[in-house]
Amino acid sequence: MNKYEAVIILNPNLSTKVDDFLKDFDKLLKDNSFSIVKTEDIGRRQLAYSINNHNKGHYIIFNLEGDPSKLLEIETKIKYNESIIRHLFLVVKEHSSEDSSLFTESKNKKPESINEDVKVESKETKADDSANTKGEV
Fold first, then answer.
1. Which residues are CB-neighbours of 11 under 8 A, at least 6 positions away?
2. Cα-flanking dihedrals φ and ψ of residue 10, to 5°?
């Protein structure tokens, strides 16, 4: 049995149906003699570039163990799943017992509304500063 890490990026419009996807993916893996060691649901994140007209994606990372001869069948079935916009399977020597850096970052991330308030305040402050400097000249 080889060890794998899989990164799946789902269509962000289907973020509410992640549990259904996880059940279907688990069934697909079990049917192909794979087992899930660990799952990390990262959540919605900004993509580095647009994929199929999506700027965000719902990330899920899996630690898997299974038969390498069955991996091709799994990838073939994933390829035709419209809810998956990108996937990647990596062979690893050992599974890390720690959380991934993406998962840690998503847990520690501040809510977006707080960040937007800070940006608005800084823009207003800059506008006031530039008005003051123009008046002084």
1. 52, 54, 57, 58, 82, 83, 84, 85
2. -95, 160
**The sheet that has 54-66: what strands, in order across it?**
34-51, 54-66, 2-10, 84-92
d(CA 36, CA 26): 7
pLDDT tens, residue by residue, 39-51: 988 889 899 989 8
Both structure tokens of 80: 């035709």
* Contact by Cβ (8 Å): 1, 92: no
Kindly report the pTM of this predicted structure: 0.71
Residue 36 and residue 23 in contact, taking contact as beta carbons nearer than 8 Å: no
Tell whether the torsion through CA atoms of 60, 63, 65 and 67 is positive or negative: positive
Nearest by Cα to 88 from 113, 128, 51, 115: 51
